[in-house]
Records
---
Amino acid sequence: MSNGFKAILVSRDEDKKQSVDIVELNDNDLMEGDVTIQVDATTINYKDGLAITGKGPVVRHWPMVPGIDLVGTVIKSESDDFSEGDSVLLNGFGVGEAHWGAYAGHARLKSDWLIPLPKGITALQAMGVGTAGYTAMLCVMALERYGLTPDRGPIIVTGANGGVGTVAIAILSKLGFEVIASTGRTEEADFLKSLGATEIIDRAELSEAGRALGKERWAGGIDAVGSHTLANLIAQTKYGGAVAACGLAQGFDLPTTVMPFILRGIGLLGVDSVMASKTIRQEAWGRIATDLDMSKLDALTTTIGFDGIIQAANDIMDGKVRGRVVVDMADTQA
Ligand code: NDP
C-alpha cells in the first residue's frame, strides 16, 4: 500500500468484546473533514486509557482510532482558515471518541476544531500540556473568575501526580499560590515539591466519607478525582472559596450535602474541556504560554514513540503514570 501509515484501531466483535490492533491505513480510509493533517505528536490522557482498555464507555463509533489530542502539520486543506504547512493543535471535540483521532500517522478533521499551534510552544511541549494540562488551566481560570487570589489562602490539588494535577501545581505556584498536593504516591513528595507544592497530604485522608462541614483548610481546590474526595474538599473549603471539579478518577458520584454551600457560600465550578469554545481554548493556551514554566513541564513529561502507546494507556489506568506522557509520532509512516 503506498502512502500508508500506522494506526491503532479499537474494534468490537458481535459480542461487544473489544480488541486493539496496530494496522496500516491510508488517506482514503479516514473519516470526513476539511483538513488533512500529518500527526507530529500526541499524548496519553486518562480518557485515552479508557478508550484503549475499554474500561470506560468513551468510544461512540466503531471501529475507532483513539487519541483526543494532537499537534500536526496540514497536508491538505479545503478551509480558508488553514493552509498546507500550518502547525495546528487539536484537543477534544469528540475526536478519538466519535471521530478518528490522533493515534495514526494522518488524521482528517474539521477546521472548526483546530487552533493554530500557539507561538513559543513546540509540538512536543503542547502535547506535554495536552488536554490534561489545558484542563488544569481551565480550572485555574475558573477559580480566578470566582475571585480567588493567592492572599486568600492555599489551593488543594487532588490526583496530584497525574496529568491534570502536575500541571495545575506548576501553574498555581507560578501564579504565587500556596499549593497543597493530595496524592496516593507520597513517595513522590520531592517531585511534587519541585513542581511548586508546599505541602503534601495522603489522599487516604480525603477518600472516605467525611463530615458535612469540616475545619476550614484551603481557599479553593482543583479536583480530578470526584466522589468522597470532592465532597471532603468542599466540606473543608474556607468561607467564600470554591472548588473546580474536572475529573472522576475515584468515582463519578458526589456524596455531599448542601451545608458548605448554604453556610459557607462555597462555589462548585464545573470544568469541561471537550466542547469549550475556540475563544476559551485560545485564552487558555495563551495563558499556558505565559503562566506555565516550561522547565517544570519538561520535568513532568516522559516521551515515548508510537509503539509505546498501548502499554502507556494501560499504565495510566493502573495509576502508574507520573505527570504527562508525550508521543513523538515520527515513526508512523509505513
Ligand atoms: P491521570 O491518570 O494522569 O491522573 C489521575 C490521578 O488521580 C492519578 O495519577 C492519581 O493521582 C489519582 N487517582 C487515581 N485513582 C484514584 C482513586 N481511586 N482515588 C483517588 N485518586 C486517584 O489522569 P488525568 O490527570 O489525565 O485526568 C484526571 C481526571 O480528569 C480523569 O478523571 C479525567 O477523565 C478527567 N479529565 C476531565 C477533563 C474535562 O474536560 N473535564 C479533561 C481532562 C481530564 P495520585 O497518584 O497522585 O494519587
---
Amino acid sequence: MLVYFTRQCLVAFLFVDLLGLGQVGSAQEEATRPNIVFVFSDDHALQAIGAYGSKINETPNLDRLASQGLVFDRSYCANSICGPSRACILTGLHSHLNGFRRNGDRFDGSQWVFPRALQQTGYQTALLGKWHLETDPTGFDYWQVLPDQGHYYNPDFLMMDGSRQRVPGYCTDLITDASLKWLDQRDQSKPFLLMCQHKAPHRNWSPHPRHFGKYKLGTVPAPESLRDDYSGRSRVLQESEMTIKDHFYWGHDAKFHGPNEFPDHFRDGIPNGEYQRMSPEQKAAWDAYYQPENEAFLTKMRAGELSADDILVWKHQRYMHDYLGSVQAVDDSVGRVLEYLEANNLTKNTIVVYSSDQGFYLGEHGWYDKRWMFEESLRMPLIVKWPDHIAPGTRSNALVQNIDYAPTFLAAAGVKIPEQVQGTSLLPVFAGGGAIPANWRDAIYYAYYESDSVHEVAIHDGVRTDRYKLMFFQRTNEWNLFDLVTDPNEMKSVHDDPQYRSILRGMQQRYRDLRGFYQVNSATIPVTRGDEAWWKQRDREKTALGKQQAHDLVFIGDSITQGWEEEGKAMWDQHFANVPSLNLGFSGDRTEHVLWRLRRGQMGISKPRAAVIMIGTNNTGHRMQPPLETAAGVSEIIGLVQQQSPATKIVLLGVFPRGETAFDPMRLNNVALNQSLSRLDDGEKVFYRDLSSLFVKEDGTLPREIMPDLLHLNEAGYQVWAEALVPILRELEVYP
Ligand code: CA
C-alpha cells in the first residue's frame, strides 16, 4: 500500500496515523512494517569499497549487498567526525541544532531521536557497538556499547545495568556476535531496528590475524595526491596535523615496539595500545606477522638505504595493510548479517543499510583522518537493500546527507516525521529507481567546528552542489572554490579565477541562503579560537584569574575592551583599579567566541555587581554579518551571564561607530545592530547605553585624534569612554 502525502515534498509509506504518534492499526499492517538493520562502521572510505570502484581492496559482501540494492554515489555527512555524524543521524538535524558539534560534547539524549520514535510505535530497538556520544543511549530496548572509541582487541563494553565488561576476542566479530544474538532473542511478533555499529576501521587500524598479509606491503597503489604540497588553496590546509609524512606515530600508527629510532620520520608519544591489551597468544600471532616486516624496514633504515620518499611510501603501505585488513572484518560482518537474515527468512521484509560515519583519507592529499570538506572525508558510503521497494543493482546521483537517514527510516515504518527534522526521506529516490526526484535539493551544507583539537583542522563550512564546492574558512576569512569536473582531486581553488567570478558569487549566495534555510547563525554557535596560540594563552590566563578571585566588575568584549590593558591602561588604572575588575576583552572576537568562553566558565567564581558588554563589531564589520544575526548572539551572551549570575546588572553598550563617514557600510551595520540591542534593555537588569555620539563629529565623520584607525580608541578615546561609563555605573549603584 503506497500512500503519498506532501509535506516538504516527502513521499512516505503511511500506515494511517490516527493518534498522531504513528501507531499502527491491525496485526496485518504490523506484519508488513519493515525491519531495519543498520550496519554502520567508523571511518570507512568509499575508496575501500568494491561497489564504489575500489582499486585497492575487495569487499565481496558489501558488493553483494550493493548488487541487491541501491548505491548512493553522492552521499555526504554534515560534519565529518565520529560523534557529530552520529548525532546528525539520530536527530535528522545539523550539528548546530542537535548540540553535538564536536567530539567531547555531551549528547542530549532527551531530544527527539528516531530510534525512540520507532520504539514508541511498536518497534523493538537495539544498539550494539560504537556510540561515542558520552551520555547513555536513549530510545533503545537494548544496548551494549563501547566506551568512547573502544578497542579492537579484547574490548570493554558498557552494559545497560551500568556494568563494564571486558570480552575476549576481536571487536568487529564480537559486535556481530552480539547483534545476531539479540536478533535470536528478540520478540518475533514485532518489527525491529538493529543498529550494528563497528569501531573498525577507525585508527589505529588493527586487523584480525586472519587478515594479516591480505594487503601486503608493496601491493597497494598510492593515490595521485599522496605528495600534495597544499599550494593553490587556503594556507590553513598546511597547518593541519594529519599527514602520513609528518604525523604518523611510531607505536600507534607504524606498530613498532620500543623507543622511536627515527624521530625525523615518526612521531613519539602514543604507543600501540592495542598490543598492550592482547593476550600472550594474540601477541605471539601479532609479532609473528609484524616483526619480520618491521625488522626488514629497520635494517634498511639503519643502513641509510631509504630516501624520505621511500619512507613515506612504506608508511602508506603499512597504513593500508592495517586499514584494509580492518575493513575486511567489517565486510565479513556484513556477510554474516546477510546470511542470518537469509537463514531466518527475514530477507524480504528487512531494510539493510550499510554506511559509515564519514569517509577517510587513504593518503589522498598526503593525509590519514577526516574532518576536511574534501570529497574523501565528506562522502559517506550509503548502500540500501529493500526487496520489492528497491530494484537490485540501482545507483543514484541524488545529493543525500546523513540527516536524511532518520526521516527515511520513519517514512519506511509509516511513522510521522516531526516538523523540526531537517533531513528528507529517501523513499522517493527508492521509488524512482535512483533517479533524482523532482524538487530534490540542489546542494548540501557542511560545517566542521573542532579546530583546537587533535590534528588542528581549522573551522570551516561550505556548500556542495552537483558540480561545485565552496568552502569558507573562518579564521582567515577566506573562500575556496572547486570545480569538481575539471579538478576532481580538489588541488586548486578557483575562487580568484576571473572565469569563475559569477560561479563564486552564485555559490556564495547559495551558501548564505542554505545557512538561512538550515537556521545557521554563526553568531550564536559557540566556537573556540584555541587554534591561535595567543588567544589560547589569554583564555587560560583569564579563566585562571576568574577562578582565583571574585570580581565586582566584568568587562566582556573584543579588542576595544582588551585595549583597556594597552592604550587605555592609564584610564583603567585611574577608574577601575580601585574595584576588583576583570577584563574579558579578546581582540578579534565575535559573539560566538564570547559564547564559547563564557560557556567554559571564564567568569569563574564571580557574581559581579555589573557586567559591561560591548561586542559585535567583528560580526557586523569585515564579516558584514546581518545585524539581526549579531544581535541574537549578543542576546545569548546576556542570557549566559544572567544564568551564571542572576543579580548582575548588565550594562549593554551600543557598539562604537566605525568607518570614515556616516554612510560607511560597516557603520550602518553597527547602527542597525545598536537599534536591535536597544530593545534588550529591560530597565531592571539590562541597561542599554549608546555612547556613539561622543565619538562622532557633527558632519558624521569620526575624530582621528581619538580614533586613529576609525575603529579603535587611543588614550584620549579611553578617557572619553571612562568618563562616560563611570557615571552610568554610579547611577546603577555598582560603582563606588
Ligand atoms: Ca568516524
---
Amino acid sequence: MSKITQNKEDISSYSNFDEIIQKEVFIDVSLDFDKKQMLGTMEVKYEILSSEIPNVILDLKGPEIVSVEYVIKNEKNEEKTMIPLTYEIYSENVYKDSLGTPLIISLDNVKKNIPDEYNKLSKSKTLMLCIKFITTENCTGIQFLTKEQTYTKKYPFMFTQCEAIQCRSLFPVQDSPSVKSIYKVKTSIPSPLTFLFGGIKKESYLDNKSNQNVTIFEQKIPIPSYLVAFVAGELEYGKISERCGVWTEVGLCKIACNEFKDAEKYIQIAEEYFNHPYEWEIYNLLVLPFSFPYGGMENPNLTFVTPALLAGDCSMSNVIGHEISHYWTGNLVTNKNWKNFWVNEGFTIFMERKLDSALLGEEMENLEAIVGNNELIADIKLLGLDSEYTKLSPDFGGNDPDDGFSTVPYEKGYQFLIFIEKLIGKDNFREVMQKYIKKYRYKSVDHTAFKEVLEGLINEKLKDPKKIIDEINWDKWLYEKGIPSYKNDFSSKLLKEAEKLAEDFLQEKEDKSSVLKVFKEWHTNVKLAFLNYLLDNKNKIDEKIMKNLKNELNLAEEYNSEIKYMWYLLALDKKVEEEIPNIKKFLETHGRLKYVRPVYFAWIEKDYNQAKEFFDKTKYLYHAFARRIIQGKFDKGK
Ligand code: BES
Ligand code: ZN
C-alpha cells in the first residue's frame, strides 16, 4: 500500500490537490430513509497540475465505495465508455480517527488497457472519474431524523453539515478549502418531500413513474467542499423579498418570515460596505430541526439556521447578519486551510457588527463586542490559558479542526481587526476591505492576502507607514496564547446600566432605581451583559439573591435561548434544584452546541450522575458532533 501524507498546504487533508485538482462535480443523489443512507453517483472533472500523471487521492471518512470508473466521452459528449479502476482505502494512518481513511485511485488500468487514452491525458490535462458511493452510519456529516424528531412528526428529515472536514463523510472529495469547484446536483425524493442542495434551482418536476420529485441545482460560483449542503424533509417556502426567502418545516414558515424579515436590509448594507454586489443571486434561509448543532451555517444560497433563532422579536438577527456577511468573507474569499479559519470568522464577526451598527445603532456594535469578549474569556478559560487552540492561528496537527472550535478565531480575530481599524481609520479600513474582496474573490487565502492589501494602502496613503506597519505586530496577534494582551475599549452606556442593575441585586438593594422597570425593554444583548456580570460575581450570590432575581426578573420565562442558557448556568452553579425540570426541557429542545455544551458541563460539575442519566436517555436527539463533545466530558469522569 502506498504511503501517503497530509497535504502541506492543508494538513487536515490527505488529498493531492497540488498534483491534480477537482474542478467540476456532478452528483445524482437519492435517499433511503429506512436504511438512513444517501446514495450517489458522482462524475468529477479534474485538472492535472503535475508533469507526471498522478494517482488520485481523495479524502474519505465513512462512506462505502461501490465503484470507481474512468470516463471516456466521445467527441460530442454524448456517449461514455467506462473503464473500471482499481483503488485502495488507506486505513493505516496515525490520525485515521480524525482525518479519515483516504481513497487512492490508480489509473494503471487505463495505462495498461488503453494506452492511447492515457497518452492523451498528458496533453489534455483533464480527466473524468465516476464514483458510486453509499453513506453509512459512520458518516458524521449527515444526520437522519425520525419523523418523531421533526416539528409535524409526519415525515423523516435529513440534513448535512460539512464544515469543517465532514464533506469527506458524504462522498470522496478533495476536502480542503484550498480547492474550489462548481457543482451540478440532481436530487430525487418521494413526494411530498423536498430535497434541496445549496445552489440555484434549475429544473424541478415530478417523475410520474417513480412518484419522485426530481430537482436539478447548479452552483456556478466555485465553492470549497465545506460549503456542500443537502437537506430533505417536508418543507414549505415563504418569500421575504425579490431575492430572499425562507424554507422551514411545515407550520413554521410564517413566523420565520417575520423573524428574518431584515435579511434583505442586511444584504444591502453589506453590498454598500463592500461596494461589491451580492454575487450569489438568491438568498434563502432554512430553519432546521433543533438538533442542528450551530446557530447558523453559510451554505451557498441557503443559510442553515437553528430554530432557536425564532425568538419572536428578531433579537437574534445578528446571526443572520453574520451568515450574510460570509457570502463575501468566507464564500467569495475563503480561508485556504483551518489554521486560517479566523480569516473566515474574524472578518465575518467584524462585518456582522458593522451591519448591526448600521441597522440598530453604534451602541449595539459595542455591546455585541462586549458580549463577544465575555464569551472569548469564558472559552479561553475552558480551553486553558496555555492551550494551542487559544491562538488566533493554531496548529491542529492531525486533529479534527472541529475539536478546537471556540470563539477564539471569532473574537480574537474581531479584536485584531478593530485594533487595525482604529489605527488606520474607518474609511481607510473600509477601502482595504473593498480591495481585498475584489482582488481575492473566488480564491482561497491565508492571512497574508489581507496583510498585503493593508500594507499597500498604508504605504500609499499614510504618514510614517513603517511605524504603523510595525505597530500592527501580526505575529503577536496570530500566535499569542491566552487572553489578548491588547485591550480594546468597548465601553458603553448600556453596559453600565446593565452592571448597575446587577450590582443592585448583588447588594440586595431594596430600591433598584428606575433600571428595573426598563429591564423588560432591554435588548437581549444588554440582558446578556447583565447576566454575564452576575456569572462573573457568582461567588457573591446566595440563595436569597437567586430568589430575588427569579421573582423580580422571571428569567426562566424569557423566550430567548441565549438568556435562558446563561440563567441556567447560574442556577446550576447555585444548585437550584427547582430549575432542573426547566433545564431538562431546554436540553431536550436545543441542539446548538453553544448552549448545550456549557449547560451540560455545568450540570456535570453540579451533579454528574443526574446529568449522566439524562444524557444517556436523550443523547440520540443530538447531532453526532454535539454528542461526541458532551460524551467526551462524561468520559473524563467525575
Ligand atoms: N461557519 C460557521 C459555523 C461553523 C464553523 C460550522 C465551524 C462548523 C465549523 C457559522 O458562520 C458561524 O460562525 N455560526 C455562528 C454564528 C454566530 C457567530 C453569530 C454560530 O453558529 O454560533
Ligand atoms: Zn461564521
